[in-house]
């Protein structure tokens, strides 16, 4: 089996705490010979500690744009840069802050912004570095636009080569069109070179929907979005009530 876990709201709670009971369940999965992977919207450098604690060396970052198998990078899909530069100029004209993430760090265009602080309050120890204007001298895997309003539809239509994911009430993710955790899982399956591997996927958010739908068994957390739970094969308990552990036992994986 390949068992793939989202992180936030699935393995860790709202306070970003990974509980001992969940750690033990992941260890049991590994001892039982299952492949275990993480699939997250986080950049690779934002969950190194979780990977170390869980002894997981296979993971999908940036919602599918960066895939690592057993410690080796097997797939990279950065955002097409020319159109990203044009979008950046338009968003600056709207006076909205942005963030840009490469494989090493995140930079933002505005200092001490309320929306940026609100989005990342439990993820960052300190405010991201300021870079304005943005230097397009490296590859970006993800960008974000911060606003408390709906992003103008003409922008979304004009930049149809990107996916705009409204993952937070104050933020839109910008990703390459068609990129997703599901794509990352398919790349992992091709790497495994084994037939008839059954895929279990756990998630709670909008960026987990495609992964839940395409997995052989899609499992939604009770704290997940209603639209995700409607598509899941099984809805387990809330993350605070060790929903991951319950589902793994339900399917006799541990």
Structure description:
The termini are close together. The protein is 30% helix and 23% strand. It is of the alpha/beta class. The chain has 2 domains: 2-76 and 179-250, Rossmann fold (3-Layer(aba) Sandwich); 81-176, Hypothetical Protein, Haloacid Dehalogenase-like Hydrolase, Chain: A, domain 2, CATH 3.30.1240.10. The mean pLDDT is 93.
Please work out how many helical segments DSSP would assign.
9
Strand-residue fraction?
15-25%
Q: List low-confidence stretches.
A: none
Total strand segments: 14
Query: Which series of helices and strands comes N to C?
Result: EHEHEEEHEEHEEHEEHEHEHEH
Global mean pLDDT: 93
Number of domains: 2
As a whole number of angstroms, the C-alpha radius of gyration is 18 Å
Structural class: alpha/beta
The CATH architecture assignment of the largest domain turns out to be 3-Layer(aba) Sandwich
Q: Summarize the main sheet.
A: 8 strands, mixed
Briefly say what this structure is.
This protein has 9 helices and 14 strands.
Helix-strand blueprint:
Elements: E1 2-5, H1 20-31, E2 35-39, H2 48-54, E3 59-61, E4 66-69, E5 72-76, H3 81-93, E6 98-101, E7 106-108, H4 114-120, E8 129-130, E9 142-146, H5 153-158, E10 162-168, E11 171-176, H6 181-192, E12 199-203, H7 209-214, E13 217-220, H8 226-231, E14 234-235, H9 243-250
Parallel strand pairs: 1-2, 1-12, 2-3, 7-8, 12-13, 13-14
Antiparallel strand pairs: 3-4, 4-5, 6-7, 6-9, 9-11, 10-11
Question: Key features?
Answer:
6-stranded mixed beta sheet, Hypothetical Protein, Haloacid Dehalogenase-like Hydrolase, Chain: A, domain 2, 254 residues, alpha/beta, 30% helix, 8-stranded mixed beta sheet, Rossmann fold
